[in-house]
UniProtKB/TrEMBL annotation:
This is DeoR family deoxyribose operon repressor. It comes from Sinorhizobium kostiense. The keyword Zinc-finger does not apply. It comes from the Bacteria. The keyword Repeat does not apply. Residues 5-57 form the HTH deoR-type domain. SUPFAM superfamilies: NagB/RpiA/CoA transferase-like. InterPro entries: Carb_Metab_HTH_regulators, DeoR-like_C, DeoR_HTH, NagB/RpiA_transferase-like, Tscrpt_reg_HTH_DeoR_CS.
Length: 243
């Protein structure tokens, strides 16, 4: 058993050395084991591997000083995040342009885009972009800039300038904290300009979070609750006034 595990670790490390990023499903297929086994191998070897919203990366690529790592959040409240995304998917319509925020909640939304719906999807997170790129019915627009490993996202003027050229029908925003008096906030300040610009441009804005985020206030404030048409959690949709 120990020898098999050691062989898996070596094989996974070699694959990451060549590819830098490996989807969990692809890693399981490569190693001939279940995804749960791969997750355990990752958890047992934090010095070698990091986990970013469904993707495995070298531990060196993770910003260890970041207070909120995507790797740490990936499995937190996973079922609730999946349910929240399922409710949000009701607002995906064919032949429209949607914006999908970074983080670990909305990555579930990608798999819920109906295959018979041609859509244009805008994002700025690597994990989300890689998932969207697998969808034949999705035209992907990835906002570029400086890459931030802690949130697997990009920021900078290039992404903001690209937004100026787009028409966004529906924006799905995520947050690390939702204070009903103050508003929505996140851990990383580099996300704020993109979130705010998208909110100002989109025809409809929805805040998609699991209920564990409610009552929390994080350092990077980006919008008051009135900026959103509604908040969507694992329990469904709530109008801002009714929250």
């Amino acid at each position: 058993m120990a020898n098999r595990k050691a062989t898996r670790i070596t094989t996974l490390a070699d694959a990451l050395s060549a590819r830098r990023v490996l989807h969990l499903k692809d890693a399981a297929a490569l190693l001939g084991v279940s995804e749960m086994t791969v997750r355990r191998d990752i958890a047992d070897n934090p010095a070698l591997f990091g986990y970013l919203g469904g993707h495995i990366v070298p531990a060196a690529d993770i910003d260890g000083d970041a207070p909120y790592e995507l790797a740490r959040a990936a499995d937190s409240h996973a079922a609730a995040k999946r349910e929240a995304s399922a409710h949000a998917a009701n607002y995906i319509r064919p032949d429209e342009t949607i914006f999908i925020d970074c983080g670990t909640t909305l990555e579930y939304l990608v798999d819920l885009v109906p295959e018979n719906y041609p859509v244009t999807a805008v994002c700025y997170a690597l994990n989300t972009a890689q998932q969207l790129a697998r969808r034949r019915n999705v035209r992907l627009i990835l906002l570029g800039g400086v890459y931030h490993p802690s949130s697997a996202s990009f920021s900078g003027d290039a992404g903001l300038e690209t937004l100026d050229q787009l028409g966004i029908n529906v924006a799905f925003l995520s947050a690390a904290g939702v204070d009903l008096a103050r508003g929505a906030s996140c851990e990383h300040f580099h996300e704020v300009p993109i979130k705010q610009k998208v909110i100002s441009m989109a025809r409809e804005n929805y805040l998609v979070v699991d209920r564990s985020k409610i009552g929390k206030l994080k350092p990077a404030f980006f919008a008051r609750m009135s900026a959103f048409r509604s908040m969507i959690t694992e329990e469904g949709e709530s109008t801002i006034r009714g929250i």
